[in-house]
Amino acid sequence: MKRALLLNFNGEPLQFIDGPRAIKLMLKGRAEVASGMTGEPCFWDETIATPSSKFRLPAVLRLKYYVNKRTYKKPARFQKKVLFNRDAWKCQYCGVELNYSAITVDHVFPASRGGKTTWKNCVAACKLCNNSKGNKTPEEAGMRLLKQPHEPTTLHYWDLNKTSTWYDDWNLFVIA
User: Fold this and answer.
1) What domains, with CATH codes, occur in the chain?
2) Distance CA 89, CA 102 (A)
3) Which of 40, 114, 128, 133 is buried most deeply by CB count within 10 Å?
C-alpha cells in the first residue's frame, strides 16, 4: 500500500504513515493535505474504501499543530542498515551499488588498530574493497573515500526501500 509523508506544522518531515492513519488524521481535523509543486493538493490516484464511503489517498499531509521534537538529542545508536542508507547502498571506495548480501561495514581507521565502531569511522564498502584495504587506513592502502563519514540524519532511519513508489512532490520536503 502507498504511504503518505507526514509533515510537522512548519513543513518539517516527521515520518511516513500508512493510508488508514492518514485518513484518520484528516477526518479528526488534525492534518490537511499539503500542496505540491503545482500548488495543487498532493493525492495518490487510488482511494481507500470504508463501509460508508471512499477517500482519496493523500501523498503529503501537514499537521495543523506543531509537534515539539525533543531538544535534547541522544547520540544515535550505530545500526548497519542506517549506515547503508546514509551511504546510499554504495561502496564508499569504488562507488558500485550494492545489495544486502554484497555490502560490508569498513572501519576507516581499522578496528584491529583501535578504531571504534562510530558513524564517523565506518562506511559501507563492497567486499572486494574491504578486503583490499585490510587493516590499513585508506591512505596507507592507496584508496580514497568518495565522501567523508558523518552522523546520519532522520531521513537515514526511514525505510525508504519499503516505499516502492516515490511521489515526486516528496522531493520538496525530503532532502537526502
Assistant:
1) 3-67+161-172 (no CATH), 80-141 (1.10.30.50)
2) 10
3) 133
Nearest residue to 42 (alpha-carbon basis) of 168, 156, 155: 168
What is the dihedral sign for C-alpha 40, 45, 51, 53?
Answer: positive
Which grid coordinates are listed for 4? 503518505
Q: Averaged over 114-126, what is the pLDDT?
A: 96
Please, are residues 64 and 30 in contact by the beta-carbon 8 Å criterion?
A: yes
- Least confident interval from 49-53, 110-114, 144-148: 49-53
